[in-house]
Each structure stands twice: as structure tokens, then as C-alpha cells.
Specification:
It is a single chain. The protein starts with 13 loop residues before the first strand and ends in a 6-residue tail after the last helix. Helix 9 crosses helix 11 (about 250-260). It is built from 12 helices and 7 strands. Strands 1, 2, 3, 4, 5, 6 and 7 form a 7-stranded antiparallel β-sheet that branches. Strand 3 and strand 4 (about 55) form a beta hairpin. The chain has 2 domains: about 15-165, Jelly Rolls (Sandwich); about 175-270, Homeodomain-like (Arc Repressor Mutant, subunit A). It has about 280 residues and is an alpha+beta fold.
Length: about 280
């Protein structure tokens, strides 16, 4: 939606957004669920054209799942912080998420909002400062997202969280966990399918349903995210990273980065002040 201070080549983890009164935003969500925190102001939210509209006020949060169109109308100038939560992030919290399944009420509506308690308010205030200061380390911002999950499960009841997270509870989480765990160890789609005990064709069908992407494209994206994180950490040389990910040559590694990350690896190092040699 907006600009969270991250580079164009990195996947969005957080966004810090100010929207004026009357602003109308429509988006088609195809991959990552998002959690919206309304810090100030108020918005009217509708998921899919036929669904009921919901008003979300200051210090309330709501979640939007993938595969849906969403419409947001700003009723009062709004300050939003948005957390993008890809499948692999949910998998890291699989046991906590699965523990909520028995608390989901049958027949309840899909939309749910929760008040932002004072601990989360403090957490978001500090996160906002990080974003404004231009901190764009995927590793660090990913850790902050993990911290958010811990705070959710410590400070909110299981019944409230079950309703809030109902759109992702029990949606093939074991399959997604297996894929997320093995995607960097498999050399190709066929090998990943074998690890999941699927035929290649059956695996591709289930994968596309769960991840809304082709296995090959998704695996390339995960590889690129890991490489990006390692480059930004600056603890290994570019050649070491190229060797670790089994590129046949440094030139091949550089082309991969340009294709998947939008820039050459040396350009990323230049942005963070690390010498490429």
C-alpha cells in the first residue's frame, strides 16, 4: 500500500501509512495475509463486493486474508501500521496457531477485529520509530513480527485470537509447514514433491491452492529472500554466499539477484556500506 522505508527489492514486512479522510483504497490480495493496526482515525472495511462493511476505529486491529479483494474507505484521517505475514511466518508459529482451532466458533462471521491493548500500542510506537528512521533489515523486521506473535499469545485470550486468526487456522498448515521447512533444501519441484510424499502433478495442484503461486516461482522467491537477508547481514562475502547456494559461477549468482531482487548483489552491499571484496 504505502512506503515502509524498505528497498524496492525487498519483500514488505511492515508499512507505516497515513491516509487522508475520504481516501478510497481497493486491492486484490493474492499472496500474503495482512494485519491492519488503526493507530488513529477510523476506516470502513469491506472484504469482497458482497460482504458486509465493517467500521474499524482508532486503536483497533483487523486481519485480511489472501485470495480476496478488499476495499478501505477512510472515514477520518487514519494512521495505519500494516504487517504482511507470508505463509512461512505462520508456519513458524504452527503449534500456537493449531492450538486455537478448538476455540473457533461454528457459524461465526469471517471478519473479526480486536482492540489494540496498551502493550501492543507501545510496541507499535517503537516500531513506527524504526520505520521512520529507515531501518530496512529484513532479519530485524522479521524478528519484530515474531515478537508481535508472542505478544498476541501472551496478552490476548485464546477465544479472541481464534476468531481473529480464523481465516488461516487449519488451512493445510502441515503441508505448508513441510514446504516451508524443505524448500531451500530441495533442488527442484520434483524433489520437493518427493519430500512431501506427493506425485509431482498432485503436489503442484495442492501447492497452487495453498500458496497461490507456482512451486518454481515460489521457491525462487524464498531463495531470493534468504540471499537478501544474508547480504544485508554482511557477515559473509558475496562469493561465500554464491558458493553456499550452489551457483555455478559468481556471474550466475549476480544475474539471479538482478532478476529476483531487482539489483546486483554489489549494489545491495553499497547501500549498506559494506565493501564487496
Amino acid at each position: 500500500m504505502g512506503n515502509s522505508g524498505e528497498t524496492v527489492s525487498q519483500e514488505k514486512i511492515w508499512e507505516n501509512i497515513i491516509l487522508p479522510k475520504g481516501c478510497h483504497v481497493e486491492e486484490q490480495l493474492s499472496y500474503n495475509p495482512m494485519i491492519f493496526f488503526v493507530i488513529t482515525g477510523s476506516v470502513c472495511f469491506k472484504e469482497n463486493e458482497a460482504d458486509e462493511a465493517h467500521t474499524v476505529f482508532s486503536r483497533e486491529m483487523f486481519m485480511v486474508e489472501i485470495d480476496n479483494s478488499c476495499e478501505i474507505i477512510v472515514l477520518e484521517q487514519a494512521h495505519l501500521i500494516v504487517s504482511h505475514v507470508p505463509v512461512e511466518a505462520w508456519c513458524a508459529e504452527q503449534k500456537w496457531i493449531e492450538s486455537l482451532a478448538s476455540n473457533v466458533k461454528s457459524g461465526s462471521g469471517r471478519f473479526s477485529k480486536l482492540p489494540i491493548n496498551k502493550i501492543i500500542v507501545r510496541y507499535l510506537s517503537l516500531l513506527e520509530l524504526y520505520l521512520k528512521d529507515g531501518i530496512h533489515s529484513q532479519y530485524f523486521l522479521g524478528l519484530k513480527r515474531q515478537e508481535l506473535f508472542f505478544l498476541f499469545f501472551y496478552y490476548y485470550s485464546s477465544s479472541d485470537l481464534a476468531q481473529f486468526f480464523q481465516c488461516i487456522i487449519s488451512k493445510d498448515m502441515q503441508f505448508k509447514q513441510l514446504v516451508a521447512t524443505n524448500c531451500l533444501h530441495a533442488r527442484n519441484v520434483q524433489e520437493l514433491a518427493e519430500l512431501a510424499n506427493y506425485s509431482t502433478s498432485g503436489f503442484i495442484k495442492k501447492f497452487q491452492r495453498c500458496f497461490n503461486d507456482s512451486p518454481y516461482k515460489w521457491m525462487q522467491k524464498q531463495k531470493a529472500k534468504q540471499i537478501s537477508t544474508e547480504i544485508y547481514e554482511g557477515t559473509k562475502s558475496l562469493q561465500e554466499i554464491a558458493n553456499e547456494y550452489k551457483f555455478s559461477s559468481y556471474q550466475h549468482f549476480s544475474v539471479f539477484c538482478k532478476t529476483q531482487l531487482g539489483v546486483a548483489p554489489t549494489a545491495i552491499w553499497g547501500k549498506i556500506g559494506v565493501k564487496s571484496d
